[in-house]
User: Which sequence fits this backbone?
């Protein structure tokens, strides 16, 4: 049995864009298990833009990380030793694991046994920490509960090629919406139009005037803005919101690397009054009781090929910081995961 394990810890608080030097790889001793605990090995670990908000030393909706603390994140793991009757050796789980080779768990927290029935039906393991995990569920509850999106409406999605944005847009299409995406670069834009079925996609890195491009793509205005980017992005679209429109504040990827006092300030909020627009954020865990229902529906769509997913894999624990830092340069194509071990047979 393995007695040591490697993990990434925070080497220093991050200022501005994260860099690999902000993280340090260390070897730790695995403890002898107590009753109720299990040890799992990591198969796939995720990198998420939202993790950035905990790395600067200030509190966000999740607490700030201290220097020397292990980096958290979602992971697909497999139990290798157990003294917890609920988790047997061999069980494959989606869980809060982190950038580490092994996880020692007391069985509490967000842990899901990955349902075996989907394994042979074209639903990859990585989907359970992607479209069937927090990113996809954010899209699901953002679109349904927060936006209350409806047939015939216009949906605008920013960072549209990420796992949250691409899922939100595809849910919009299923609801009968006209779906417009904003994403960076021709590859992402082509995938969104040709594979994910978006009606129009704007490459914000190529257009001379993004505001004009959005106005042209949404001639009747925007009913639902699903924003993953941040204040400037929201402020640009506010004047285009239709009466009783909804702004879903999902994420702020452009603002995570900027100190709060230096962030773009919203200017166009009068439209919230004049057009009775509702702007609402979400933390996906608020909807945890409905996760299973949403996952079953989306798993069926992945299996029948009607929900397109993009998963990009890096190999090896060593590559986690590099994979994470690239998110803020737009380098990821879909859900970015790092593989530490092959899928269990
Ligand atoms: N509220 C919740 O409960 C919840 C849960 C999960 C995730 N989220 C949020 O949802 C958002 C999307 O997450 P995701 O996992 O799908 O990641 P993602 O959209 O793939 O995020 C990375 C992408 O963000 C874009 N980006 C990076 N820097 C940018 C900048 N300065 N300006 C504009 N775009 C920039 C890039 O795409 P382009 O190449 O297209 O620019 C990059 O590829 C994130 O903000 C995340 O924090 C919220």
Assistant:
């Amino acid at each position: 049995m393995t007695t040591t394990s490697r993990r990434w810890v925070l080497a220093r608080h991050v200022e501005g864009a994260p860099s690999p030097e902000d993280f340090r790889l260390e070897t730790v001793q695995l403890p002898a298990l107590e009753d109720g605990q299990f040890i799992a090995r990591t198969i796939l670990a995720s990198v998420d833009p939202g993790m950035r908000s905990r790395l600067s030393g200030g509190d966000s909706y999740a607490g700030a990380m201290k220097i020397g603390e292990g980096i958290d994140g979602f992971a697909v793991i497999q139990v290798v030793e157990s003294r917890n009757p609920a988790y047997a050796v061999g069980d494959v789980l989606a869980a809060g694991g982190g950038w580490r080779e092994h996880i020692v768990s007391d069985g509490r927290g967000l842990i899901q046994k990955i349902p075996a029935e989907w394994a042979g039906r074209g639903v990859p393991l990585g989907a359970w920490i992607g479209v069937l995990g927090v990113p996809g569920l954010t899209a699901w509850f953002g679109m349904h509960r927060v936006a209350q999106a409806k047939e015939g409406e216009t949906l605008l999605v920013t960072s549209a090629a990420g796992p949250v944005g691409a899922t939100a847009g595809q849910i919009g299409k299923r609801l009968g919406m006209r779906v417009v995406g904003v994403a960076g670069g021709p590859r992402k834009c082509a995938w969104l139009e040709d594979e994910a079925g978006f009606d129009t996609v704007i490459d914000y890195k190529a257009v001379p005037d993004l505001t004009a491009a959005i106005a042209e793509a949404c001639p009747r205005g925007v009913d639902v803005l699903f924003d993953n980017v941040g204040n400037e992005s929201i402020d640009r679209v506010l004047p285009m919101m239709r009466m009783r429109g909804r702004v879903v504040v999902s994420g702020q990827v452009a603002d995570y690397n900027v100190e709060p006092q230096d962030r773009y300030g919203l200017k166009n909020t009068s439209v919230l009054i004049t057009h009775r627009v509702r702007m609402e954020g979400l933390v996906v865990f608020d909807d945890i009781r409905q996760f299973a229902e949403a996952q079953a529906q989306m798993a069926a769509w992945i299996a029948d090929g009607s929900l397109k997913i993009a998963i990009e894999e890096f190999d090896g624990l060593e590559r986690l910081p590099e994979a994470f830092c690239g998110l803020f340069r737009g380098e990821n194509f879909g859900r970015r995961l790092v593989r530490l071990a092959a899928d269990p047979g």
The chain has a mean pLDDT of 96. The chain has eight helices and 15 strands. Helices lie at 134-146, 163-174, 186-194, 210-217, 231-237, 270-274, 291-303, 320-326. Residues 48-50, 134-135, 138, 159, 161-165, 183-185, 188, 228-229, 250-254, 282-284, 327-328, 330, 332 surround NAP (CB under 6 Å).
